[in-house]
Amino acid sequence: MKGFQSxxxxxxxxxxxxxxxGTIGAMVMGxxxxxxxxxxxxxxxxxxxxxxxxxxxAGHLEAIRRMMLDGRYEEAAEFVVNLSYQEGYGPRIEQxxxxxxxxxxxxxxxxxxEEPEDYKKSLNFExxxxxxxxxxxxxxxxxxxxxxxxxxxxxxxxxxxEPVSFEVSLEKxxxxxxxxxxxxxxxxxxxxxLDPLVAVQDHTLLYEGVxxxxxxxxxxxxxxxxxxxxxxxxxxxxxxxNARDTLLFYNLLPVPDRRKAVPRAxxxxxxxxxxxxxxxxxxxxxxxxxxxxxxxxxxxxxAPKSELAEELWEKGRQKLPPNRYFEMLCDAGRYQVIxxxxxxxxxLQGIWTGTNHVPWSAxxxxxxxxxxxxxxxxxxxxxxxxxxxxxxxxxxIPEERENARVMYGYPGILSASRTSSHGLNNHFSVEWPMTFxxxxxxxxxxxxxxxxxxxxxxEFFLNHALPYMKECIVFFEKFLIExxxxxxxxxxxxxxxxxxANSPGISQACINATMDVxxxxxxxxxxxxGCETEGVEKESLPKWRAMLxxxxxxxxxxxxxxxxxxxxxxxxxxxxxHSSHLYPLYYGVAEEFKNQxxxxxxxxxxxxxxxxxxxxxxxxxxxxxIQMAMTAVHLGDTDTAWRLLCSIAExxxxxxxxxxxxxxxxIFNCDISGGVPGLIFEMLIQSYPVTDENGKIQSxxxxxxxxxxxxxxxxxxxxxxARGGFELNFSWENGKVTQCEVISHSNYxxxxx
Length: 753
Prior knowledge:
One of its GO terms (biological process) is carbohydrate metabolic process. This protein folds into 2 domains: 3-46 and 100-291, Distorted Sandwich (Beta-galactosidase, Chain A, domain 5); 58-97 and 318-598, Glycosyltransferase, CATH 1.50.10.10. Helices cover 31% and strands 24% of the residues. The longest helix is centred in the middle third of the chain and has 22 residues, at 458-479. It is globular.
């Protein structure tokens, strides 16, 4: 079985067993006599701040640009914030995105006086089933649970060797520990959550979530679908007495407008089979069809035949974690991403939370976090998970058009830096001038185009990638202004989340961020390459080539390092958790860097300057560590990539292999659920298109074991994907490939580099 077993109940909510079908999330605490399951929904965000039009800066754009070109960066940021106050915005603490919160706590209370013994729990990655078992007096009690993709509900079976009694309730969430930081409690995402409406009808407990000053809400239902015991309904709970076998159904539905007739949560139970095994098999077929497509194996002769999760976790926290631990992190990460991918992709916390004091709203943070959690979807053969990302980004286009129109007066799209319940750009401040960040959509466009490269699906390119990329570039056709040499300038600009060393005040406002230049350059190159390959948009190609030719030159500072800003006005600040100017090395080596050795050397120097500080950090901002490690991989620095991967492995996981944002582990966060497998795959296989002089793709190059760490001298990868529509099964011994099967899903050829 892929997954793990443990003998430890959760000591904190972050250690709950993670289950989900992409829509409903569940954290199973596994407490024997008072089981608690925290239920969430991918679209359930507690109303926090009113949804507002973006601040109307379009009519003031020239004034903002004059301030910035005069070096008055903070004044420009203050101007935007003051304008927002005039338009009804409140202070920054009131402008967070709506928070991802717990719908309700489902409780199963066992009133027996005996203390539980012989406790076990497990999580099966192959079918998504969590199991908890223990002895209670003379009874062996087992609780099996999963969230079904096939039925769209959660299912639990309680079995006992002797008749047992228990109570089932749905309760308003109660915090069991302090907020990870006091600030997130102060923000108060839960301040508008009112007491629920609870009722019992026959064998079904109904729970209606209500918020203050809004008609938005949600409905939950849990039903005793089948039992061999007696069922007694009380005003706020259901009691099952003297049962050996009980089947529970649970469902959760957001309600956009409680005043209108809406489906009832319990309606989904109608017509379902009353067989746990039948329901599990139907779900497992869908879940495992994605999960089982690929597998990583790393030789580990010292690994025991069976090992508890807590034992492996303790070994993993030592220097040089065992290979089995890296296998587990890859398996667990892929499982978590699958469970959290539904109509929308995983948030900062996937699809889970056990607190309403959620850091950063547990939203979509789009200046690196969102891009990291989807990092393994394409090479990991999880295209269904990437579809969730594509759907979500396309759903935001109307509001992103409004962002571009209202804030800049231009066509095209502009992505907000944070989104949850909507895509309007409502979150910014003087220090964090997010209205100046214009390239978020261009970053997302990278993944639209990469989806095309991994599949070479013409229809996807024409119907999804190309329209999205054109929405991005049409904005920059209007936004970019010329300098005195006829080169483009990005004014305003933003380099997440850094500020120039010589910039006074607190604001991160800037001009000509290197990442902005890199992203728009990549966008143009991908447009040209894709359209040349598919023979479309011929009338647009000269315009895009001309735009590319006017991109500002990358700059090298006095230390010989690539500058974070393509201007002499800003000085570099090295000690920072982000490394946005190294974007050209995140996912490969950008074309302009391949052709200019001096830029590669400058990028190496910039990377070394960042690493001076990164080496002093332990697991701080895990997704930033992933980005640095990906940069190391593409610079050929296997030792550093390995060291950074080990740092994450040792510091950023709970004992159920759930990930964290910071070392400790501290702050439940799913960025590395996709980031760690994505990094592992990039160390073991890389692939790139080969083009003619016009940019038309002719073939692909595949490289095996380009960054093989010394401890991984033998292993195998099955079902991994490469650009060009290729699927590979390969193995290696003593650092050399011994077997390789390449399955082509396209008409393109390849060479092994």
